[in-house]
Amino acid sequence: MHVAFFVLLCSSLTRYLIVHPGAPSTPWVIALAVVLALLYVLGPVLGPRRPAASGAPTTAPALWLTAVIGTWLTLVVLAPSFGWCAVPLFYTGLRSLRTRPAVVLVALLTAAVVAAQVKLRLRFGFDPNLLFSPPAVAAVATAVFIHSQRQADRLRTVITDLVRTRRELAATERREGTLAERQRLSMEIHDTLAQGLSSQQMLLQAADRLWDSDPATARRHIRTAASIAEHNLAEARRFVHDLAPADLADGTSLDDALRTLADRETSDTLHVRFHQDGTPTTPLPERVQSALLRIAQGALANIREHADATAAALTLTYLDDQVVLDIADDGRGFTPTDRPGVVRGHGLPAMRARLQQLGGTLAVESAPGEGTVLSAAVPLPS
After folding, report:
1. How far is CA 240 from CA 133, 145, 235, 252, in A?
2. CA angle 222-223-226, nearest 5°?
3. Most Cβ neighbours (<10 Å): which of 113, 137, 199, 347?
């Protein structure tokens, strides 16, 4: 529309200079055309944007629009051919005013165009097109603009709703991520630091009971507690850095980590052995190794605290499509239950949550007096 306005303005001025060479009003027409062009150029600075439904243009834009229309009307009176600039001015008024005032302005501009064309062509006789063509063009231009503006308003509303919905979704995802991270940290702490502190407490209590009657055994318990404390300190430092298990640091494989865990958990009252069946065709992902090691740590902590077992076995089996870790003990056992609302501590739910994140499963086989077998299976990437 801006380009069309200047093209029509230049062509109207050129026509006037060709048809009316040396006319007395020529300087005024040229001056008014230059003023109109300058005023139109000032539109981005002073020109009003489309006002809100409850608002109106401010004083400066209103004065600008009045100056543009007034200058154009003066030009049309002096040179009717400038009436062709009306169509771009239609859109200027429609863009600047609310709908009703803009329609009134378009009607006034159309009337001026009709009057100018009738004055220009009167010497050639009456032409019905001079009366009906400008109103038809104005009506079409106004209808197209109003329809487009309404479509744009609806689109802006939709975009606003989408942006708000996206922000709400992002906030929800952040909250879910925060809750998931809290759950993951709680599982990490439960399977390492909490279990280690519980073991230290049991060992120190046993050492206190045996301090007078069996000092050698009491000292051994204290040394074991000190070893667990040292390992827990390494785990805590690992949490601070990257939350990876300390036993898997420096590229240690899962097999070696489980073997080290079995040796560390072996004591006078509990013998833990490790067995590996098969070999991995590809290195296990770090997440899988960390999850299986944490599950083994949590299971051995439960055996030590609750099972009253004398022997436990860690068996790592590599199959074609999955890796399976079995933790078995000869302890007192229990009655497994999957009923909703019935939870046996935090250990088993934490193990299941870890495996679900990896697409794996946890199976529990146990009965009172017959020991327990936990089987954690994780599918391998194809």
Report:
1. 79, 62, 9, 19
2. 85
3. 113
3-state secondary structure of 29: helix
Distance CA 90, CA 149 (A): 14
Q: How far apart are the C-alpha atoms of 134 and 140, rounded to whole Å? A: 10
- Kindly tell me the sign of the dihedral angle through the C-alpha atoms of 49, 55, 61, 66: positive
Helix axes 59-78, 99-121, angle to 10 degrees: 10
Say what the pLDDT of residue 252 is: 79
The helix (run of H) or strand (run of E) holding residue 375 is strand 372-379
What's the rounded Cα separation, in Å, for the pair 117 and 50? 30
User: What is the spatial distance between Cα 259 and Cα 220, in angstroms, rounded to a whole number?
Assistant: 22
SS3 track for 158-188: HHHHHHHHHHHHHHHHHHHHHHHHHHHHHHH
The more confidently predicted of residues 232 and 52 is 232
Per the confidence metrics, is the pTM higher than 0.85? no
